[in-house]
Amino acid sequence: MKKLSLTVLALVLFLSLSGLSCSLFSKKTTDTTTTDATTDTTTTDTDLATTNLTNVEATSIDDLVTTNYNLAKSKAQDWKSDAVLVNLTVKLPKNLATNQATETYVFGSAQDANNWFSFSISESSSKYIRAVIPKEDYLGTDVKPVNSTYWKMNYLRAFQLAEANGGKTFRAANKNSEVVTTLGHGLPKGWLWWQMEYKSVDTGNKLIIKVNPNDSTVIDENGNPLSTATAAQ
Description:
37% helix; alpha+beta
């Protein structure tokens, strides 16, 4: 009987130690997994923070925007064979991530005095939306076709010039802000300009900077010359 009791006691002790060992092993595995996951997330966040529209090469988007423009032009000419570009608006993502903007091309036609043809495309998905919009609802009727002779820079180059001449300072003071860039003819002098509109989502404060896509001149919304600082390349 004494021998049986000792055997039972040994068995209970073995099972207890085995259970403790399994428990410790399971906990260690969980801790290791959690640590690995945290490390991976940190690395990803760092990558996203260091690569954005403020520091990539402006020419890096040339192929993308050329493809999107050609597609927009083709669809516009399906609408009217003489369709010409009159306006281009690019809404930048709030985090300024690359290849995440939305491009909206607007075309006009002598065959349709009352409407514009709009083509909006997502850079990230390549999905697009087409629409025929009454001129009185958008842009108005007094809009000149874009003179491509003076269109010598893409929106990214213009944005980086604006950043170097006040845009970066505005964003630093307004953390929750948006940037919309527009190409079209307007003041001053009716020239072709890239207009950058920085807007605080929280306060509504705005900053407008214009960049000449022909000679890289940078001015404020009143036409006053800004610094001749150039964008980082």
